[in-house]
Write a structure and sequence with these properties.
By secondary structure, the protein is α/β, with parallel strands linked by helices. Helices cover 30% and strands 23% of the residues. The strands form 2 sheets. Strands 6-7-8-3-9-10-12-11 form an 8-stranded mixed beta sheet. Strands 2-1-4-5 form a 4-stranded antiparallel beta sheet.
């Protein structure tokens, strides 16, 4: 694998919950992301999947340093281009500005991420003006080119967001992200708010753009079936930590972590006659990130939990080349890891 473009080292994101009043003392801490390691190579798409509330979107936004210090405490390191983005984020918004054009995001909700008072042409042109990448007629030419790139007509540039469908708005969001020629894009559940009939179109567009422009994606989603078609590797998150990281095909064909096995068992099969799959149902709900269980956070719901799981947090261990799992039984070679899914 090529040297990493973006590297996460022990990344933690904690949100303080403050009591009301003049002193606003912290009464609890939400451990949204609790120490994850991840390396993303140039041109690669890494899928980040898991249940709602596991810390996926928080991870993506923390990489880009979108949380001000008063809102979240971010520790650990995020390396890009020889710079630690976490350290830059502590110095204020201005310190990150030179890198913003390399690091972009496509937001989940295309209805909320566009300014309703700006035409889409102005929306796409804004980052060009902020970073001084074009002036005058060159801005108009660039906007028209970006609209064509995402499958929209340049004649639409004077329209407002409310005149477009959800899929068209997401294409506009993609065009805005591409305006500054980024190298790395966080895709924060970009298809979850769209109709099923439109999701495949957006996925195909993003895959095509990655190939054509040499982009690198962190693709965040809860739909494992969708991630399978765009990601080369998949990282599975549970309660703020990565529990499995492996090539996409291996995750789907032979999931190792009990949580991953449960997620894969819930993915619908178009033709059930082609493969038998027993649904694995997990007991209980995902614990609160305010007070996560000791040891392995998954052990209260895990059908294979052992005494050590309740006391010692398993490290993310490489159990085969390129395949990492955070599970005591798997690391030991427990028989359940090879049982049919």
């Amino acid at each position: 694998m090529s040297p990493a473009l973006v590297t996460l080292d022990r990344l933690r994101v904690h949100f303080p919950l403050r009591a009301k009043g003049f002193l606003s003392k912290t009464r609890a801490v939400v451990r949204a992301v609790d120490g994850i390691d991840l390396a993303i190579a140039p041109g690669e798409t890494v899928g980040l999947v898991g249940e709602s509330g596991c810390g996926k979107s928080t991870t993506g936004r923390a990489i880009l340093q979108l949380y001000p210090p008063r809102v979240a405490t971010i520790t650990g390191e995020v390396h890009y281009g020889g710079r630690d983005l976490v350290a830059l984020g502590r110095r204020g918004p201005g310190a990150m500005r030179p890198l913003r054009k390399d690091l972009q995001i496509i937001f989940q909700d295309p209805y909320a991420s566009l300014n309703p008072r700006m035409t889409i042409g102005s929306t796409i042109a804004e980052p060009l003006k902020i970073h001084g990448l074009a002036k005058g007629s060159a801005i108009t030419e660039r906007v028209n080119s970006l609209l064509e790139t995402v499958g929209l007509s340049p004649t639409m540039a004077r329209r407002f967001p409310h005149e477009f469908s959800g899929g068209q708005r997401q294409r506009i969001g993609i065009a805005r992200a591409l305006a500054v020629n980024p190298k790395f894009i966080v895709c924060d559940e970009p298809i979850s708010a769209l109709d099923v009939s439109i999701q495949a179109q957006i996925m195909n567009l993003m895959a095509e753009l990655r190939e054509r422009l040499g982009l690198t994606y962190l693709f965040i989603a809860h739909d494992l079936a969708a991630v399978k078609h765009i990601a080369q590797r998949i990282a599975v998150m549970y309660l703020g930590g990565i529990v499995e990281l492996a090539p996409a095909d291996e995750v789907y064909e032979r999931p190792l972590h009990p949580y991953t096995r449960a997620l894969i068992s819930a993915v619908p099969i178009p033709d059930p006659s082609q493969r038998e799959r027993k649904r694995i149902r997990l007991d209980g709900e995902i614990p609160s990130p305010i007070d996560p269980p000791p040891g392995c956070h998954f052990h209260p719901r895990c059908p294979y939990a052992e005494p050590i799981c309740k006391t010692d947090a398993p490290p993310l261990t490489e159990v085969s080349p390129g395949r990492f799992v955070a599970c005591h039984p798997v690391a030991r070679g427990s028989p359940f890891t090879v049982r049919a899914s």
